[in-house]
Amino acid sequence: QVQLVESGGGLVQAGGSLRLSCLASGSTSSISDMGWYRQAPGKQRELVARVTRGNNSNYADSVRGRFTISRDNAKNTVYLQMSRLKPEDTGVYYCHAIDFVKGYQSDYWGQGTQVTVSS
Predict the structure, then answer these.
(1) Buried b vs exposed e over 60-84: b needs ≥16 C-beta within 10 Å?
(2) Which phi-psi region, left, alpha or beta, contains residue 6 (left: φ > 0; alpha: ψ -120 to 50)?
(3) Taking a C-beta distance cutoff of 8 angstroms, is the pair 111, 95 a contact?
């Protein structure tokens, strides 16, 4: 089992920056990919960025060049540095992790952290 706890959300003006953190605990040695998803009001949850254990990352087109995902395996933490924020980046941001145990994949989610970008 893996537990994920996000922090770092808040209210920021358009053009500003925020950094989200997600601390994993539990059976962290089995975690492979970690990432961030977001869900805006009335919309489906969407992938923002994800990173492998080897720090290979990919991004949604809407955030590429503005957001940076990074991972510190020693600290069991994944970060999302968000810059040049836009009102459309508003939503609840969820940390996500995948682990493989005995050939089975499990998905884990944090409780979410609110990001609000004012225009």
Answers:
(1) eeebeeebbbebeeeebbbbbebee
(2) beta
(3) no
